[in-house]
Amino acid sequence: MPVSSVIAATEPLSDNIAKSILPGRHAVSETQRIQVYYRKDADGRFVIGGRGPVWGGLDGFSDNLVRQTAERYFPALEGVDWTHKWGGWVAMTFDHAPKLMRLAPGVLASMGCNGRGLAMSTMFGKQMALEVLGEGAEMPITEQYFTPFHAFRNLGVWSHITKGRLLDRFS
């Protein structure tokens, strides 16, 4: 099911702020229920992403939640200008597991990278090539996947995110 993801980036950080935030230049993806991910880019900007709006599209979306999270984790970011934001859709599956499927004889498809599409799509491409060449994929190929209760996806996404944020806040 489509779930929106938004990313915000600061102006290049001053040296004193940059030294206090991720000094090892780590890229972080959290293990909370509602994940955010963040890093510093090559220009010294702090970049953070997370879940976007549930209802409606991405036109005029707000990046306030990811910015507030960044400033809560790293108070030195308070007062820094946030100069960039962008968003898009990621494909999530009900069980949060990616799918490699056989839709018909000789027809393969992949989906549900759950926000990790760049890495997963490369891996899926290799698996599909192995299968097409007759060498056999190195991962299970399932029948076509259907999202249970897909007609109610927005309500399900909203309730999952709301519950996750509450549990994350109090755990």
Name some characteristics of this structure.
single chain; alpha+beta; 25% strand; 171 residues
Description:
This protein is of the alpha+beta class and 171 residues long. 29% of the residues lie in helices and 25% in strands. The chain has helices at residues 15-20, 64-73, 117-132, 153-170, and strands at 2-10, 28-29, 37-40, 46-51, 82-91, 99-104, 107-111. The strands form two sheets. A five-stranded antiparallel beta sheet has the order 2-3-4-1-5, covered by helices on one side. A two-stranded antiparallel sheet has the order 6-7.
Please render the helix and strand layout as text.
Layout: E1 2-10, H1 15-20, E2 28-29, E3 37-40, E4 46-51, H2 64-73, E5 82-91, E6 99-104, E7 107-111, H3 117-132, H4 153-170
Antiparallel strand pairs: 1-4, 1-5, 2-3, 3-4, 6-7
Rg, nearest Å:
19 Å
Q: In percent, how helical is the residue content?
A: 25-40%
Overall shape: globular
Subunit organisation of the chains: single chain
List the total number of helices: 4
The largest sheet, given as strand count, sense and whether it forms a barrel, is: 5 strands, antiparallel
**Which blocks of ≥5 consecutive residues have pLDDT under 50?**
none
What is the N-to-C succession of helices and strands? EHEEEHEEEHH
Task: Give the strand tally.
Answer: 7
Instruction: Report the end-to-end length measured between terminal Cα atoms.
Output: 28 Å
Task: Tell me the strand percentage band.
Answer: 15-25%
Content-based structural category: alpha+beta
